[in-house]
């Protein structure tokens, strides 16, 4: 069988003649799909000859520039992270800055929450008449602790999640 | 509280019993479906689809909302009024703290359990064992209120003595965990969350529809009590108008009411971060930001849930004041349906709440049992006692540990009949808050924490809290007597947490050379966003 | 009120706490404002932005093209009379006044530049004569020239010329010197880049050797076979193969999330399925809870490959491979099951001792060894097989292990 096979890399090779004695269809180790039989190619045989591929590679090397470009695009931002990992001055500054910002954010949100939550008993104590005022049929004190505290906490949480994410995105942009 | 009076009014509520059993069966079915059917596929994209925040959050909420939340809060609101509202608010706030300081970094670190974090952060297998010890203590303590809830529920629904409920339910759950283990656990927990929400919302809406608005109920509970309630108040069994006011009966009961309340609040807020069965759930998130989003959804879910128990407590005061007289306010949620007009409606509602109650202690107890058995089998047996154990041996160890831990929980559960559920929960939270909350917060945010400081703090904080609680359990009479000392021992969080923090800080400052050499790398893993593709080499 | 005695200390405590919290909040709010936009910091920021705009071209090395771009950019921003860059003993670029006789490609025309190249030190020329331009009528009045260094040697010079009405200030001099230093830095980096490139090429060659030519050969044959009968499938296979190769080359890390292993297996299987068509059926049974577990790379695919090669391909008729991953609390249990020809004890031993390299990448031996070395000997591969019935290979690893991370 003759003819050429067009390689994915754009070149053409003469097809190697089928090795003498090899059966393409049905026999032996794992019969392959009919396609192979049509092309007269031999089935996989662990230990078979390498010639066809060797020839190919030898005569038509891969487009190195393209491969390197692809590699480059895939490699992550190693340098900055290496710096951080190796505890260099620049790395430390980057790292500490991020951690500090996140911690400050957490503490601020916690502070707001605690001030309000722990201020409630104070309110109850100091302004009993005020907190017993009715809203929607319920006294403010009850309404606050039995109903409103939950959406309040959730709103704080929402703010935190979006801001923390923003800090992380900024850090990523800086490092990349 | 229980005993003679309960037996005198025995009624077996068959519908509710069926609901009980139904939930058990449904749980197993969901577990089987989740693993066999739903997860078998030819499509890799289906197979590799991660658990989304909503599903994960449902599962977390399902595990978190225990018998205490489901049965206990409503009952206690009915008994003690306004001050009890601090409990559920604290439970929700705990998640906020978790979100702010723990969720994302812990996920990034890759630790599955707190002992993992303890070992990984400091490179110390010895510290791991200390952490494991407290995981076991907290796990067992938190199982106790679930056992109690089970006993109560079975009593209310089937009229059987307390111990029957504890043994049967405890046994069923232990077997389920031992044989099924982790099968489909996310789906199961999520399913049970929705059962619980349904089970607590439906009675509330029915009550509002039948009798009047939230505000109307408030009027009845405080300024214009119906005759039955009035009678109970006059008999001295029920609190009067001070019920609805701050610094009411609950505070009065303890010698130092404000102190007790604050201590309890601190325990519930900080304790969530230390509960072993909750923290492991963060592992299933894809990355740190997903962990945050999941926590956000959890907050919304449990927030919605906790709107209902106070309302039901209010309604209980109005519609079932006889519970004051019999001292069985704990069983409010199961008794309330019986007070409704029409036996059929009552039966159905009772079935609904029974289902919710069963789901509550099933999911939480399963989660705890898995955490405890996992700690015993993985940390104690496989890593310490018998490091070369083969796969089969490890699996067997898990099963035996589940059965053993379940048995221990049942045994202790039989002895805690006299303690209110929420007190038991408060204890578990106090230990978790004292032992693990400072460890997580400082370990994640402070580079200067050394293994010496961390271990000392955990031991001191957790140890003191455990000792105080054990003392109260054994020597105290169930409700703290009036001295300052007994109050502080009954709810130690307010002083054990600062002591724990202080010990950690002091211990670390005294041993500055023991800061791990690779601390920067650890901080990296905790805080740097995953999108940067950081890679570390094995064996550092 | 009875509570009064205890109330007062608690009230005080409450107040102190609130005050502290409020102070914290206020402090945080106040310190927020102080970001980078303050006076001096702003000026520094602007300068750096300027440098950023004008320097990137040199990252590709110093040649006529890059020098031209750089000079143009500098000229654009600073607006001097002219900018000249010299390198390798010739003018690489000259932008601005006097461009007609300071031509790129010619020898440096000014004594100034020649002096800088010779001494390697920056020089200031305050008069037209000091510049030393041979051409009469040259409009350049004053100049500052600074050397460009590479590997501690003079590789060129940057000269900025000023005309009438552009006085030479100390600031300008400093700026030119700083500019030249930054440019030198860029050139050094370009050198490093080139080295890295060559290194990558060498690495690539090494990696190529790890992929069995047989696998590539077979896959390409399959693709070629499809080209005629089903071109769409061929195109898809080709794209997948390219991605597959890229991933292989990308294998730098030692660990990756399990979800990624699954995807890798899927890609590998797409080629095998193209080969075997209906003879190969693959089923996944994966607990989503463990998808984010960090596992060593290439720990699943060799198992699947073994199942396909030794199980299914040798079987007459269709075969099924089940890839299962179970969440077992603190561990994950991963297993590949096939209903192929199975192995007897002898074959099993051979498989576990056999070649370290399989048709693709690594073999079972390699996987076993890596699992054992990372997690311990009790976490290696377990093989159960019965001839004629099938084979199951499994392992169980802890979800967390100190030192294991992405």
Would you give an account of this structure?
The complex is a heterotrimer of chains A (176), B (540) and C (406). Helices cover 64% and strands 6% of the residues of chain A. Chain A is mainly α. Chain A has a two-stranded antiparallel ribbon with strand order 1-2. In chain A, strands 3-4 form a two-stranded antiparallel sheet. Chain B is 74% helix and 0% strand. Chain B contains 28 helices and one strand. In chain B, α15 (257-271) packs across α27 (493-510). Chain C folds into two domains: 42-194, GAF domain (Beta-Lactamase, 2-Layer Sandwich), CATH 3.30.450.40; 253-398, Heat Shock Protein 90 (2-Layer Sandwich). With 406 residues, chain C is an alpha+beta fold. The chains are: A mainly alpha (176), B mainly alpha (540), C alpha+beta (406). Chains in contact: A-B, A-C, B-C.
Q: Specify the overall morphology of chain B.
A: globular
Give, in order, the helices and strands of chain B: HHEHHHHHHHHHHHHHHHHHHHHHHHHHH
Helix proportion of chain B? over 70%
Structural class of chain A: mainly alpha
Uncertain segments of chain A are 1-65, 70-80
Strand-residue proportion of chain B = under 5%
Evaluate the radius of gyration of chain A: 35 Å
